Amino acid sequence: MNDELSEDVRAAVGAILDxxxxxxxxxxxxxxxxxxxxxxxxxxxxxEVGGSGGRLRDLAVVADLTAFHASRVPVAEAAFLAGWxxxxxxxxxxxxxxxxSLDEARRTTGLRLSGCLRTPWARHAxxxxxxxxxxxxxxxxVVPTGGGVERAxxxxxxxxxxxxxxxxxxxxxxxxxxxxxxxxxxxxxxRSVQLAGAARAVLESAGRHITERVQFGRPLAxxxxxxxxxxxxxxxxxxxxxxxxxxxxAVEADAADAGIAVAAAKAGCSAAAHTVAAIGHQLHGALGxxxxxxxxxxxxxxxxxxxxxxxxxxxxxRLAAAVSASGPWWPLLTGGAR
Amino acid sequence: xxxxxxxxxxxxxxxARRLRxxxxxxxxxxxxAGAFVxxxxxxxxxxxxxxxxxxxxxxxxxxxxxxxxxxxxxxxLDRFVANEELLAAGAPVAAHWIADRQMAPSILRHGTEExxxxxxxxxxxxxxxxxxxxxxxxxxxxxxxxxxxARKVAGGWEITGAKLWTxxxxxxxxxxxxxxxxxxxTDRQTGxxxxxxxxxxxxxxxxxxxxxxxxxxxxxxxxxxxxxxxxSMLGERGAGWSQVTAExxxxxxxxxxxxxxxxLLRAWAERQGGDPVAARELGRLTARAWTLRQLSLxxxxxxxxxxxxxxxxxxxxDLGSRFEVDVVETVRRLAGIEPRGGGPGLEGLLADAVLHAxxxxxxxxxxxxxxxxxxxxxxxx
Lengths: 338, 381
Hints:
Shape of chain B: globular
Radius of gyration of chain A: 20 Å
Number of helices of chain B: 13
Keywords (chain A): FAD, Flavoprotein, Oxidoreductase
Largest sheet of chain A: 8 strands, mixed
Protein name (chain A): Acyl-CoA dehydrogenase
Oligomer: heterodimer
Pfam families (chain A): Acyl-CoA_dh_1, Acyl-CoA_dh_N
Helix content of chain B: 40-55%
Helix content of chain A: 40-55%
Number of domains of chain A: 2
Strand content of chain B: 5-15%
Structural class of chain A: alpha+beta
CATH architecture of the largest domain in chain A: Orthogonal Bundle
Order of helices and strands of chain B: HHHHHHEEEEEEEEHHHHHHH
Number of strands of chain A: 10
Domain Acyl-CoA dehydrogenase/oxidase N-terminal (chain A): 23-67
CATH superfamily of the largest domain in chain B: Butyryl-CoA Dehydrogenase, subunit A, domain 3
Largest sheet of chain B: 4 strands, mixed
Distance between the termini of chain A: 26 Å
CATH class of the largest domain in chain A: Mainly Alpha
CATH topology of the largest domain in chain B: Butyryl-CoA Dehydrogenase, subunit A, domain 3
Cofactor (chain A): FAD
Structural class of chain B: alpha+beta
């Protein structure tokens, strides 16, 4: 998946993120503005609706790098989710910060929407894209924010708000073949990529720490027990990255095995998050446990993101159901029916 | 410190799908004809020369070798697809496995023209099987401490020493031997060379070693001043260590390093009885299997680009062999059956898997060694 174009995106986004100080608030608006200037905030969203175009794998690079840097920006919610919904419905991307709600709203009279909708980053958003249902019919709708936002945070301090709609008029709407379950799959894909990015941050920090930290007269890295732990951490982090990347390619290709790929990637990344965070903290010793250390920014994200859009149990059950529905196990693993 | 192991996700193309269908159809026919019963770890422990020759007749041995050496000039990824199908089916591929996997590429790369003509077409026909003489009684994980010596004599070399844990030497037609040609054992990696020794041979005694399951897969091969002609040296004198290291990327990277117990998992998956605990564990193992397959595929794709991903191969083998054991323990815990050696169905598959499991994390590099390779690859040590 490391083609030239993706590497260009990686280098350009890296240049924006490298050496940047952590933002004190829960939304790094200056960074978001910088990303938006070059269109990196809406990669993978069709240009016809006002996105930046490009492929899903390029968007995944942005999600990976912002996760690696623990950047406080809603790449997943804006591009993976809101942009995707707008693209599916052919609706223009509205002004300002646009995120998606994870739940379906009830559509009452006309285009008025109601419901308590989980909407990460809602407090900072100008518009929210939501799926709205009336009977069996679904539309994608855009609503302005303002007023009814109940604030909450995940373990990493990221905004995990609830948008309260009470007969709010949508400013735009169009039918689309989507539902909350497909949106959840999309979110699981984004979180898999982000989990892998955060795991890489833990790995890099641990590798640096054990070569610099001297105990018993030598760097920790000289101890075989420490080396073995780092290798175990690297193995899980690499598995996370490969599964997330492979799932991105499957979804980008709209392949028959895309659903299996996302389920396997999220189940795997969520399950591995503990191993990565635990070894990461163990290798850093007490130093990594202080809030000042950047390790915590990565590990709290691992702990939060592994549950979001379904933890491993949810996706393991989904895989088991897919096995029993499709019959033979091996053909399912290798890309669908023969 | 580099934070990443170089590996990149790869998607197989439509050609791979066609080949996969051909191999599956062949395996269905073979099973239907009673030609084999699926077994765990069959790539290591179930040789069937007739089966190997039937695969060869289909063009599924020596797949990547040049045509002039009897090969089929297919991509390494085609070879990956054919092999993962054979492994998933638990097919009896042990006779040719080592020859096809690592000796064919090694002879192609390091061998003389005469050696290539002599061995490669025979490997591709499924008629020439190899054993690997690396480990010794005092040189296991620490391979550089081998004591087997080759002494220059008129017209060739005299080999003296003993190789241990030599899989398949009792049916192999030839064996590659790592021996010291120069210097002393303190020279470690320098002064080692490889020889191809045709079997059986005078001065070479093959003694069976029975494994914990009572079966005979391993051997001790004793060389008592065994003469080999000068042209049996493989590659350069003194380059044995670097040649062996390059071989290890092939030895460690294949799908067999995570798939030894897939026949058991597959059989268990196909007889789920609605137990939600078992279903969730099946989901867990399925997710892991899916990821390991992507890892294995990406290593194969790296090899196909002409690189030698030693660190990635070590990492994937470490994860893969732990998964093989995880499958055994999960199925054992949840299937509610007792293993029965030689028995049919899940009971028989489980018996083989339980008895072979200790070898998974040892052979081809013990897990601890693999993790050292990974740590070094990350710039730590």
